[in-house]
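Justification of computing resources. Each target in the renewal requires a structure prediction run like the one illustrated here; the chain below, 237 residues long, is used simply to show the kind of job we budget for.
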Amino acid sequence: MKSVRPYLIWFGVAVLLALGAIRGMQWVADHPEHIPTARFEFSHPQGWATHRKLAGFARDDAACFAAFDRARAGYERRPVVGTGVCRASQRMVLTGNRLVPTMRPANAAPGCAVTAAMALWTRDVVQPLAQKHFGQKVVALENLGSYNCRKIAGERAQSQHSTANAIDISAFVLADGTRISLINDWTDPDVRRDFLHDVRDGSCGLFSTALSPDYNRAHADHFHLDMAARTGWSVCR
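Resulting structure tokens:
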């Protein structure tokens, strides 16, 4: 039997590598949510690079608002407030409830990056869990505010609230008017507690920081959610 000529072996290897490269390029095109350099779109599912892209929005006002523009999401920008470490340039209010349920009060005006994260949180965490536990959707989110120029309690570091890159969510209101609040329902052994704990767990990895009543007494009545500009790790307690 004649041996296979070396050039035929190398030709076969080259063909296999080319086919692998083509398939790899197609996979990248089909899964931009996993590619850090691919443009963020609200229509994309969450992927390996989603948190990195959202955290990057906290440093890039233009890119963040452009994502809302491409999604044709109605919003109003709020004036820049503060200076230095307390300068908040991304404050916004959504004018519809397509991406995020109605906010109560409506004037919280969190920054663009955290609002973008809330849109995915609503789609992938809050609404699916509301359907699972209650068979209906969440129509309103009660909040304790966003912008507050201050340091983290007991620490020297500045809070993400100082740039409106955080939101404190205190309660969820269902379509039938049922109100689920952290202060009243976090520890009660019923479906409301299960919903709140599942929402907290689902927030991990999407937000840079997700703090609940399990963290400390200061968070007994709300979820603290922020998009601190970290990549590769998050805090969830």
